[in-house]
Design goal:
Helix content is 72%, strand content 0%. It is mainly α.
Length: 259
């Protein structure tokens, strides 16, 4: 046992913003990968996405364009699910007193927030998107649907960006509110309400990444996978910038939150 070890616990020499990082990250990743969470989520979303696609690609009149667009639409439901999962990441720990207890130890607020952002982002992307998408690519190949693995990977990357939008939005809201109500209500309202703003506005919002907008035949994801021109690429930039802004605001607000 190394010097300074007590009852099997290893003292870690982490200073500044990294204080407590290793242990918090270990706990965060463990919540996904040392429990049944990862395979339950992976099986669920593999079934949801591929079950929906089966209706299109194994029907009497298979439609590749519809299949690619439907894939994007189904990833939208995973993005909404991650908002539901994330609603308790900050609010729940504030309400239970866990956040105050953890921060009373030699732990920095930056490390605490990173332990909520990184493990949840990795876990959600892997189980709700990457694993189901790999199964989808195999499903398409078996069904005889021609698709470029590279274009498919790019489409999945855009779907991942959409998922991160709702994850970081929910994380930010968790630092701004003490109750779970607005933390989950705002992402859900935005997810379904942005389509009501009209094509001129919606074309710049995450909705156009997964759903065709205006006169477009495909969503951004569907167009990328199908090798078609992307008509609303501005939404990719807006969504990426929003993810960065949400994350910065979340860290800034958390550093000033009294527990």
């Amino acid at each position: 046992m190394a010097s300074g070890d007590v009852a099997g616990l290893v003292r870690l020499d982490e200073r500044g913003w990294r204080r407590g990082m290793t242990n918090l990250m270990r706990a965060g990743f463990g919540a996904w990968w040392r429990t049944s969470t990862w395979w339950v989520q992976a099986l669920l979303w593999t079934a949801v996405i591929n079950g929906s696609l089966a209706v299109v690609i194994w029907g009497d009149a298979p439609d590749d364009v519809s299949a690619f667009t439907l894939f994007g639409v189904m990833t939208m439901f995973a993005a909404i699910a991650v908002a539901i999962v994330m609603q308790e990441a900050i609010v729940g720990e504030k309400r239970s007193g866990t956040a105050a207890w953890v921060l009373s130890k030699p732990t920095s607020r930056t490390a605490f927030m990173l332990s909520k952002l990184v493990p949840n982002a990795v876990g959600a992307l892997a189980t709700m998107l990457v694993i189901p998408s790999a199964a989808t690519l195999l499903h398409l190949a078996v069904a005889g649907v021609e698709v470029s693995p590279l274009r498919f990977a790019l489409g999945v990357t855009v779907a991942a960006l959409n998922l991160l939008f709702y994850l970081t939005l929910t994380l930010m809201l968790g630092t701004l509110f003490n109750g779970a109500g607005p933390v989950i209500a705002v992402p859900l309202a935005f997810a379904f309400g942005q389509q009501l703003l009209g094509p001129a506005v919606t074309a710049y919002l995450p909705w156009s990444l997964v759903v065709p907008v205006g006169g477009a035949e495909s969503s951004v994801i569907g167009a990328i996978i199908g090798g078609e021109p992307v008509e609303t690429s501005a939404a990719i930039v807006v969504t990426a910038v929003a993810c960065v802004v949400f994350t910065v605001v979340a860290f800034w607000r958390w550093a000033r939150t009294e527990l």
